[in-house]
Amino acid sequence: MNFLPDLTTLSPLHVFLLTVLLTNYVEHPSYQWPLDYLTSESYCKSSNCEPNACSATVSDTLPKFDYIIVGSGPAGSTIAYRLTKHFPDRNVLLIEAGAEPSVESIAPKMWAFNLNTSVTHNYFAEISTDYGNAFRNGTDCMCGNQIGGSTGVNAMMYVCGTDKNYNNWAALTYDRSWSYENILPLIKKNQNNQDPKLTSGQCADYHGTDGPLVVTSSDFDVNEDSLWPILKAAVEEKGSRQLDDINCGPPYTGLVNVQSTVNAGERESAARAFLVPIRNNSNFYFMKESFVNKVYFKKENRNLLVKGVSVLTKQPSCKKIILQAKREVILSAGAYGSPQILLRSGIGRERDLRTCNIYQYKDLPVGRYLSDHFLSVHYYLMPGNLTSTIQGAQAYFGNEGGAFIFNHTGYFTTAGFNHNWFINTKDRNSDYPDMQIVFGVLDQNLLDIDVFFKEKLGFKDEFADQLIAANLNYSLIQIANVLLQPKSRGNVKLRDCNNPFAPPIINANYLDDKRDYDTVLRSINIINDFMNSNAVKSAGIRQVDLKIPECDIYKRNSENYNRCYIKYFSQNLWHPTGTCRMGYSSDENVVDSKLRVFGVRKTSRTPMLRVADASVMPLITSGNTQCPVYAIGEKAAATIIDDNY
Questions:
Q1: How far apart, in whole angstroms, are the C-alpha atoms of residue 142 and residue 457?
Q2: Which residues lie closer than 8 Å to 52 by C-beta, 6 or more apart?
Q3: Dihedral, 268, 151, 417, 263 alpha carbons, nearest 10
Q4: 160-181 burial by CB neighbour count: b if 16+ within 10 A, else e?
Q5: 419 a known binding residue?
Q6: Is the entire prediction scored with pTM above 0.90?
Q7: In whole angstroms, what is the distance from residue 202 CA to residue 254 CA?
Q8: N or C: which end of the chain has fewer CB within 10 A?
Q9: 574 labelled ligand-binding
């Protein structure tokens, strides 16, 4: 765990919470991450720790691993866990580009303190005049750069998508093993759901209780959040339904308090759930702060074979090593990381490789078909309560910090964005949503609110200052209006041919398809109507009067105003998918339904190459993507075990 934050830059509350967290968790067994193989005695003995030990094209002194997995996010950690357990006589190596998670990652409410730090890849989409103009750097595309990947920095929401999502995957791949009927058992296998109301009631068949990943419901969100009863009353007034469980459908439309990957009040990351339990297994090896540059190929009798994996490390005695696998190399570096590795390796479209003078081994659409959950964000004022004064805020947050540390209860046990309204903007009676409305409350006089808006979300000062000023006298309701099934597609390309650490070119292309624009506009109208309900108005809630010069020439909430508003207050939900997508042929896909890269052969001397992460999704799921990516990890592990190369 990263125990050395720069305390001089932090607020008194932040310093207090960090101090208590460090005192209580520095030796906690749940946060004892896997030992780094590069600093182990066995590695130093094999390489002699000489500066040139890894300069050779292939280092014969290093052992061959049976399996090499790149990336320790939800898919990579799941695969490592399953293979390590199933094959005790085979060596499994997991390589992670990042270091230990930050101490802030323990407390769910402090999730935002991880954003735009060393534990995230701080990527941005190419600037567009059509969206993201309220933000200094345009559209943020950050993702996790730590043990556990993005599960260490996300908002922990556990939404598995609809049955149609997986049935569509099965149809597009011509493979029924990807159908909901066949994926649901893998979701259950992965999950340790600890809400007895869901595991013993009518939704019991949709949840597992024996898996490594703890999933819980937040009592605080339901019992102590003042917004929840208002939302329930407004939904009833508007004739919508309330759901007990979004993962037990259809129907998948309605107001619901979604579950979270939270364990005893603390974040349940992929690292905590899957890597800590196997850290002492003799056949499990782990490398942190080790960046996989490329996969080396060779052609033999017209067959494309994997030769090795090039790794750049931070170890002072070894800057570059080349590792070899006997059976499989699995890329689980995410929808930005996996395509970059393949492109640097010579897998991709010729025109994308030509600019970097990279030899093309296989013509596949690597980096194409990027799909993410685009959103517009809206703000409302709500009368404050316990935190209506600075002194009250300090006392409240201080007391809640103590409740979290000593009782694992209260305000800090939830990210605060679990109130979700799933709607269909065309058919209010449909069981399947096209938008996800995410409600969150930023309490009045929220400490570090300036850090949240300016440093973490990256708002320009002229917009952040308006929201900060509003928070002095009111709590802020933040509403993310999320497009669930976007039709627009972007792409990911290499930015710097000579620097593998350079951020990629991300052409997001949000709203390129007019159907996406129309869906978002319809949803904004529904939100405006919902927030104008008697239940909401009687609570004293009203829209923040944001000043946007370009938009203020239009009537507030008119179609022209909303179109202009989208140009400014819009982002994505950090759910990139599709860049190494799965399909039945290599014409427009990168991997087959077994997640094998098209064109790469497995021989008795060379390993198979697979991709297993969000990048393989043919279509994005209707909700937060961590649950589906865990399922992809389980599917990949089961396939690898079944193939038994």
A1: 11
A2: none
A3: 0
A4: bbbbbbbbbbbbbbebebbbbe
A5: no
A6: yes
A7: 17
A8: C
A9: yes
